[in-house]
Specification:
The chain is α+β, with helices and mostly antiparallel strands and 289 residues long. The protein folds into 2 domains: 141 residues, Glutaredoxin; 134 residues.
């Protein structure tokens, strides 16, 4: 059953153990790209959400090669069989992200979504709408220099145009776990959470409100505190955010720039190198290999 068990610790803040099952494989190049993406997102969340990460982030990645076994594993943890993966764990538990072996673009999307939950878990508790909204935003993103470019998929666009962005107050105060929502509403709620989170992340005004939400909710565990943080820090308050969300949903842009405000080099700059041939390698390995 177990065809491979790999362990490679970076000389830095990420340690990932990969377990491949039933013929699944993960080549070294893909693994390096996944680790680099995780590092980039951790720096974004540290800055934008005020999450204090440990010196080393540890994560187990399980990759299933048998779709039927993956489906049964998903159902065993209470998830729908069509999920692309899941994360379980937390600060004081074994952190594990589980995936089905698929083509790299689909695996990357699932990886970004589930490892977003992993990174947010260090800032627990976090509002459910923020946790899921960040995960959907990150899974549709790409890095351009220091900035993050979030894309609007045709499906997300269609749902927003049809259903609207929803009520900010209802989203923030009615913060039920998404897995507990009725099947006919859960998909729309994911996309509306993505829209709200993206609107908050894409401006300096919104970024300040987003960090205030994360910090205040972590302290109080009260959805009212999240709404109060928005009212206090978003220019002209919740009503203005609602207008901005409605405008976003009415005509969703194809891409949204999450501009970096970080100064100086990123910690990843010292560890990762882009080679002239396009490869991404660790600096200590070098481009010559």
């Amino acid at each position: 059953m177990l065809l491979a068990a790999l362990s490679w610790c970076l000389a830095g803040p990420i340690s990932i153990d990969v377990e491949t099952l039933d013929g699944a494989t993960l080549d070294r190049g893909t693994r390096i790209r996944l680790e680099y993406m995780l590092w980039q997102v951790s720096e974004l969340y540290s800055h934008r959400l005020g999450i204090d990460y440990p010196r080393t982030l540890r994560l187990k990645m399980t990759l299933h090669g048998d779709p039927e076994r993956f489906r049964k594993a998903a159902e065993a943890v209470g998830l729908q069989p069509w999920v692309g993966g899941w994360f379980r764990g937390g600060r004081d538990k074994t952190n594990e992200a589980v995936f089905r072996a698929v083509a790299e673009p689909e695996l990357v999307r699932a990886w970004l979504h589930e490892t977003s939950h992993f990174l947010v878990s260090y800032g627990r508790p976090a509002p459910n709408w923020l946790n899921e909204g960040l995960a959907v935003a990150i899974e549709t993103s790409r890095a351009e220099g220091r900035d993050l470019i979030v894309s609007t998929s045709p499906r997300n666009r269609a749902v927003l145009v049809r259903e609207g962005g929803g009520s900010v107050e209802t989203m923030v105060l009615g913060d039920a776990p998404f897995k507990d929502l009725p099947g006919e509403t859960v998909s729309t709620r994911y996309i509306q959470a993505w829209a709200l989170t993206t609107v908050l992340m894409s401006t300096q005004n919104g970024a300040e409100a987003l960090k205030a939400v994360a910090v205040d909710y972590r302290r109080t565990r009260d959805p009212e505190s999240a709404l109060a943080a928005i009212e206090r820090t978003y220019l002209w308050g919740v009503a203005a955010l609602q207008r901005d969300l409605d405008a976003f949903a009415k005509s969703p842009p194809a891409t949204i720039v999450i501009a970096s405000t970080l100064k100086g080099p990123l910690s990843s700059d010292a560890v990762w190198t882009n080679c002239p041939d396009g490869r991404l390698v660790r600096t200590d390995v070098g481009c010559g290999l």
